[in-house]
Amino acid sequence: MTSSRMSVGLLFLLVSAVCGGELTVSHSPSTLRFGHAETLRTSDLDDVLAASLGYTPVQTSLWPGLTITSPFSTPTAAVLVEVHSGGASVRQEGATYGLKEDVSIDEVFNHIKKVYGSRAQRHTLFKHLTVDTSPNDSWIHTIPKTKVLDYSQEPDASFLREMAALVTTARTAEEITTIPHGGQDVIFLEVSGMEQLVKKYGANSPQVEEASSVLRAQLSKVVELMREVYSDRVVVMSATVEESKQLSRRARSILQAAETNEPNVNKSYSSDYPAIFNIILWLSIILVLAILAISMSMWNMDPGRDSIIYRMTTMRMKKDN
Predict the structure, then answer these.
(1) Helix (H, G, I), strand (E, B) or coil at 17
(2) Which residue from 78, 91, 103 is spatially nearest to 185, judged by alpha carbons?
(3) GO CC annotation: what is one (predicted)?
């Protein structure tokens, strides 16, 4: 695994210097607060996601943008949408931060799956979804209407098909979720159509401006869908990255070649596990407090003649005499 990480790092250095994108938190439950903070590195993104789900981060100092207001009602899911923007800004609603791309989002997913998946104490799903743009009746009639983008030519058509299929792909969360069995979900989605538009028309072109508007609208639908599926107990983020799609695919192939085939679902636990854990935890706390109280009472007991211990021992001594 170490050699694969080195290979990915060298690959990034050979292609370009460290890129910069944006991270937008579109929705988070009331138990989490995302405030003002500086740029977040993608290598720290897995810790932020894990901390949001209630895990102790690997690093001792967590990114200051995240504040956990209550550890007793953690989100049941974390959803991240990776957008290959080609350098264009999407300008979404929500808390937005600079994103320093020192590792790929694919490596973030693999790291959170390996490190935090092994520590999970309940059924946990890790799923990385790429939007499928092959013709499908479920979305073919929902292609967004546009004024500047032309569906009869590429790459406009590929982008519009991807936007139509994005919501349909996100809806698969309803089918694969582990929430009914007391689990947690970590879902990554990936879209790359805008990157080709930027290459052809330029980042400030009318086509890219309209594409950004379409993408914002589709991402809003994904956010509403995830809030519905997970009853608002979900963190929904989108990462706009400048990293090219080809680099992302090659980095993913290196990581997959270095790892053994593992299922996306972590080892399962009984649905009674949370109840049993809480019973044992609180019973242990009560017993410790009870022993402490009894010990303190005995330590401060008055040894005078009015104590029952003194009276009992005195009577025995008189009988012996």
Answers:
(1) coil
(2) 78
(3) endoplasmic reticulum membrane
pLDDT, averaged in runs of 10, over the chain (321 residues): 45 45 93 90 91 82 86 90 88 89 92 85 87 76 89 91 91 91 92 91 92 94 95 94 58 48 53 81 94 88 59 57 56
d(CA 40, CA 56) in angstroms, rounded, equals 18
- Identify the burial level of 9 via C-beta atoms within 10 angstroms of its C-beta, where 0-12 means exposed, 13-18 middle and 19 or more buried: middle
* Structure-block tokens of residue 271: 């649905």
Q: Across-strand partners of 125?
A: 185, 265
- Amino acid occupying residue 181: H
| Nearest Cα residue to 266 out of 52, 108, 121 | 121
Nearest to 76 by CA among 173, 175, 184: 184
- Which amino acid is present at 74? T
**Does an H or E element contain 9, and which?**
helix 2-15
Name, in order, each residue with C-beta under 8 angstroms of 308's C-beta and a sequence gap of 6 or more: none
Q: Single out the residue of 157, 161, 168 nearest to residue 207, CA to CA.
A: 157
Nearest-angstrom CA–CA distance, 73 and 215: 31
> Which residue, among 82, 39, 29, has the nearest Cα to 63 in the 3D structure?
39
Beta bridge partners of 188: 80, 128
Eight-state DSSP code of residue 124 = E
- Name the residue with tokens 């947690």: 184
Separation between Cα atoms, residue 259 and residue 268, nearest integer Å: 21
SS3 call for 28: coil
**Tokens at 21, concatenated:** 């994108």
Tell me the three-class secondary structure of 255-269, residue by residue. HHHHCCCCCCECCCC
